[in-house]
Write a structure and sequence with these properties.
Blueprint: E1 3-7, H1 13-23, E2 27-31, H2 35-47, E3 52-54, H3 62-76, E4 81-84, H4 100-128, E5 131-138, H5 149-169, E6 174-181, E7 184-185, E8 195-196, H6 198-211, E9 216-219
Parallel strand pairs: 1-2, 1-4, 2-3, 4-5, 5-6, 6-9, 7-8
Helix pairs in contact: 1-6, 3-4, 4-5
């Protein structure tokens, strides 16, 4: 069975991704900080007939994240698809107020976390000459929002890394892409707020994985 590892798994998009890929025959490794949340997701997926296992780790701690992914590889054999979308918060910070101390936690989770995750799964993918690396950012990674300066900066760095991977790994059988979500994730939203249900968004990830024909998917209004 192929396996997807979802870093930053939660009851929204993460669960939808697990159900979409699990519905296509994938086992699922779920990674996030809170074990109780992960255990609830595992139980939900089991009811849908999908094999899933929890591997608690903080994406901002490279050692924890690496150990979690190594444990997932030991459990399932190897990771065929990595999806990276840890929640780093939406703290309001304007560009003039950004400091190293404020920015560092976002960089730790979103950039260093992405690098640590890739380094954990890439050797197996290279050996198999097959694999998919999918990264998630907000739309501000492309066109920044002034009030989200820290998260936008970190996500822009992550996006750059993802597209660089796309441009350099294709000849080795590895597909990488960034998904920039520029709307609210949810089946419902306040009037005037662009939104899209997580189950619908998750199908775009499956399309990227199967079509492998672009470095980025922008999901907007």
């Amino acid at each position: 069975m192929p396996t997807i590892a979802i870093v930053g798994a939660g009851p929204g998009l993460g669960l939808s991704l697990a159900k979409v890929f699990g519905g296509h025959g994938f086992d699922v490794a779920l990674i996030s900080r809170t074990k109780d949340t992960l255990d609830a997701l595992v139980a939900d997926l089991a009811e849908a007939g999908i094999t899933a296992e929890a591997f608690p780790a903080d994406a901002g701690d490279p050692t924890q994240l690496t150990e979690a992914l190594q444990a997932a590889i030991a459990r399932f054999g190897r990771i065929d698809v990595l999806e990276f979308s840890p929640h780093a918060g939406l703290s309001m910070t304007t560009p003039k107020d950004v400091t190293v101390d404020i920015l560092r936690p976002k960089i730790d989770s979103l950039l260093y976390g992405a690098v640590a995750a890739v380094q954990a799964v890439l050797p197996g993918m290279l050996a198999a000459k097959s694999g998919t690396l999918l990264f998630t950012t907000g739309g501000g990674a492309i066109n920044p929002y002034p009030m989200l300066a820290t998260i936008n900066t970190a996500q822009a760095a992550q996006r750059n890394y993802a597209i660089n991977l796309h441009n350099t790994l294709a000849d080795e059988g590895i597909y990488a892409a960034n998904v920039a979500i520029n709307l609210m994730i949810g089946a419902e939203a306040p009037d005037g707020i662009p939104h899209r249900a997580p189950d619908e968004i998750a199908r775009d990830y499956w399309d990227l994985h199967t079509s492998r024909n672009r470095s980025e998917q922008v999901i907007g209004a």
